[in-house]
Write a structure and sequence with these properties.
Layout (H helix, E strand, L loop, with lengths): L38 H4 L13 H17 L4 E4 L3 H7 L11 E5 L5 E5 L3 H7 L4 E5 L5 H11 L6 E4 L5 H10 L4 E4 L1 H8 L4 H22 L8 H14 L3 E8 L20 E10 L2 E2 L2 E6 L6 H20 L6 H14 L14 E3 L6 E5 L12 E4 L2 E4 L3 E4 L2 E5 L4 E3 L14
Parallel strand pairs: 1-5, 3-4, 5-6
Antiparallel strand pairs: 1-2, 2-3, 7-8, 8-9, 8-10, 11-12, 13-16, 14-15, 16-17
Helix pairs in contact: 2-7, 5-6, 8-9, 10-11
Length: 425
């Protein structure tokens, strides 16, 4: 990392900008101390010490909820291979490549596990509950899964496979229990993970607040001539200073019309929009925040028009999000505002859905998109991120995380402020 040094910005400039963006300055003006962080980032301090991770007792509660859903969904067992869902239920993070480690959960009792024999001691260190059955290198892990299912009278039933499980593992399990029916385990896994409890929401709220604070410091550290990768490094540094690992997609000017970036980015120039999109994870729970500002000059009428319209669309989606409504109606509310503002029809300028579910994964069930008739429920969490992308000119996106409440919705951090000062804390 080679971030540039930057002086503290003044509260106003001749161009009329706010404290965050200041006048444009060349990136090489601060190369006298290349190892130093910009003052706005260096001043950040960790704010995560009071946040506790998910406990073993909470994970046991999740197991019990999954067993209730197994009965409700008419599944006899659930098999979960390494990934986010395994961590959700057990706290176990595991990378084993082609060797199967898996949790097998049936309607009653504690989970059982299969693990490579030479890794059994490591697995037992990590696994908080349940028996571990080990397989040697010349043995079949699928035979062990089958033995667990037989012992628990589930080998002839319906076995749910967690959706992230590699095909080779799912196929091996299917062959080992030919009398069983293999089905998707998503009704159970998503059924648990989609609804966040108070502890999960607290972790996500803090993660979002940290991200907004980090982006504010990064906007205060911009200098003309910086590259997108340099600003991205500042984003990671700011999050790290605040006590959370993460990063960001950074886009300037016309490049921001590519919602997920371009292969040939250009350095920052005064008067361009700067779009920062990303976040991090706090005890496993993600943030995903986008802020868009105009750097180094007063926003043009055109930039302000688009910025304000996207903000109105974001607010419209927020007002539409409440218990009992279909997910697609939230997308429709935001898209209607953008179309009525002259940036339609359909996906012409607002090129993506308005939001995705979020929790331990940055993108998870369910999605706020046309055609999704899933009814929203309290405890669900989503991004609310409309955007307008004008090829060759600019892209503007505002993204915040909302949660569905009993009476409507709540935003987990402060909304964007202005094109001059988008990251309000």
């Amino acid at each position: 990392m080679n971030p540039t040094r930057r002086h503290v910005l003044q509260l106003s400039t001749a161009a009329g900008l706010g404290a965050l963006l200041g006048p444009a300055r060349p990136a090489d003006a601060f190369q006298d101390a290349p190892a130093a962080l910009p003052p706005a980032i260096a001043a950040l301090q960790a704010v995560t010490q009071d946040m506790r991770p998910i406990s073993v007792d909470e994970r046991r509660g999740r197991i019990r909820r999954a067993q209730e859903l197994l009965v409700q969904e008419k599944l006899d067992a659930l098999v979960v291979a390494p990934g986010t869902t395994l961590e959700y239920f057990s706290g176990v993070r595991w990378s084993g490549g082609e060797r199967l480690l898996a949790m097998v959960l049936t309607r009653e009792g504690e989970p059982a596990w299969v693990a490579p024999a030479f890794e059994k001691a490591r697995a037992q260190e990590l696994i908080p509950f349940g028996e571990v059955r080990a397989w040697e290198e010349d043995e079949s892990p699928y035979a062990l899964v089958a033995s667990i299912l037989r012992d628990r009278k589930a080998a002839g039933g319906t076995i749910g496979i967690e959706e992230g499980t590699a095909y080779v593992f799912a196929d091996g399990i299917a062959r080992a229990v030919p009398a069983a029916r293999i089905a998707s385990g998503t009704p159970v896994t998503a059924g648990c993970r989609t609804i966040k409890d108070a502890h999960e929401l607290a972790l996500m709220r803090r993660a979002c607040e940290i991200t907004v604070r980090a982006w504010r410091a990064v906007f205060a550290s911009l200098a003309e001539g910086m590259t997108q990768s340099q600003v991205g490094e500042l984003c990671s540094a700011a999050l790290d200073r605040l006590g959370m690992r993460g990063g960001a997609l950074v886009l300037f000017g016309p490049d921001a019309a590519f919602p997920h970036g371009t292969s040939s980015p250009k350095p920052l120039r005064a008067g361009e929009v700067v779009l920062i999109d990303g976040g991090g994870r706090l005890h496993g729970y993600a943030s995903d925040i986008t802020r868009t500002a105009v750097f180094g000059a007063a926003p043009s009428d055109r930039q302000r028009q688009v910025w304000d319209l996207v903000r109105k669309a974001q607010e419209a989606a927020f007002r539409a999000a409440r218990p009992g409504v279909e997910a697609q109606s939230v997308d429709a509310a935001a898209r209607r505002v953008i179309e009525e503002g002259g940036f339609g029809p359909g996906y012409k300028y607002f090129t993506h859905r308005v939001g995705h579910g979020i929790g331990m994964d940055g993108h998870e069930w369910t999605y706020l998109v046309k055609g999704n008739i899933t009814k929203l429920r309290p405890g669900m969490c989503f991004s609310d991120e409309p955007g307008i992308y004008i090829p060759g000119e600019m892209g503007i996106r505002h993204e915040d995380i909302i949660t569905i409440t009993e009476g409507g919705a709540d935003v987990l951090e402060k909304w964007p402020g202005t094109p001059e000062e988008p990251a309000v804390v």
